[in-house]
Amino acid sequence: MAKPSRSPTPTPPSPSTNSNPNNSSEVLPSPSDSVSSLSFSPTTNHLVATSWDNQVRCWEVLNGSCVPKAAISHNAPVLCSAWTGDGTTVFSGGCDKQVKMWPLASGVQPITVAMHDEPVNKVAFIPQMNLLVSGSWDRTLRYWDCRQPQPVHIQQLPDKCHALAVDYPLMVVGTAGQNLIVFNLEFPQTEFKRMQSPINHQTRCLATFPDKQGFLVGSIQGRVGIEYLDDSKKEKNFTFKCHRIGNHIYSVNSLNFHPVHHTFATTGSDGIISFWDKDNKQRLKSFPEYPAPIPCSAFSADGTLFAYAVCYDWSKGAEHHDPSKAKSHVYLHSVWEDDVKPKYRKKYLLWN
């Protein structure tokens, strides 16, 4: 992976607080409320953010800086986003119980292509099937052909959808009640496997292994689980602690595999980003702590950029929400090969 050019030095933070300890480039304009998802185009350096301010914003990354490209609105907070495989179209879903399709290049107005009975909090596009899949608090997973008004199939879930990860033919859904449902998308209407999370707390996020042999699961308990699908590899399953400061335990909010080196990043409500190597059981890098949670993140398609949001994530409830410190930030960080490439140490770092 070629080394990226260094991003421009941002404006120094005020002396009273180090609001940007990693000196990442800030993406402007900032959303006016908490950021709920970030996603990069699979083909170009376009970044999309959804927010609780009802907005979906798109920027183009040029020479390490983000240039605003366009924005659309929902009628309620927007919770999730996804791209088509060719990188031309964005999908966004939220509390208005619908998914909108937004063709970026054509200038066509977004249209509603999916509906649920409760808020839509997860969405993904499956290029191999030319289908959109949406997960909702209405306890269903729905497959959509965007040319038709009705879902191709409605999959009942045991509880509210909390997490979704798709890499054809593997799809994993996490629901309330610590349920994990695995699908082989070659047979999308049948569950391949249902299991309880290896972590005894609510599932917060999921990520499929790049080789599709298993998945990661992150929880509100500050733990990540590594799960292989093949029962003969059960001895390789393990969980490890992370996003803990002293006796304080924080939620693991996002999991993202690096597209080249297949190591992964976690972000947490403790305001920390860490890069990990699951195969060698190592933490590769831990970044300085931010003064607010990091609710979402994403690697660019070539792995040279890492986007993340810093804002209140409501994990401690409304009583801990301080409007004077509620400003939301989206940052763009250059990824250096030494930070994400496995180090293959002989002595493993043991997790427990």
UniProtKB/TrEMBL annotation:
It holds the Pfam family WD40. Residues 1-40 are annotated as: Disordered. InterPro entries: WD40/YVTN_repeat-like_dom_sf (IPR015943), WD40_PAC1 (IPR020472), WD40_repeat_dom_sf (IPR036322), WD40_rpt (IPR001680). The keyword Repeat applies. WD repeats lie at residues 28-69, 71-112, 113-154, 245-286. Residues 16-40 have a biased composition (Low complexity). Keywords: Repeat, WD repeat. PROSITE patterns: WD_REPEATS_2, WD_REPEATS_REGION. PANTHER family: MRNA EXPORT FACTOR AND BUB3. This is Uncharacterized protein. The lineage of its organism: Eukaryota, Viridiplantae, Streptophyta, Embryophyta, Tracheophyta.
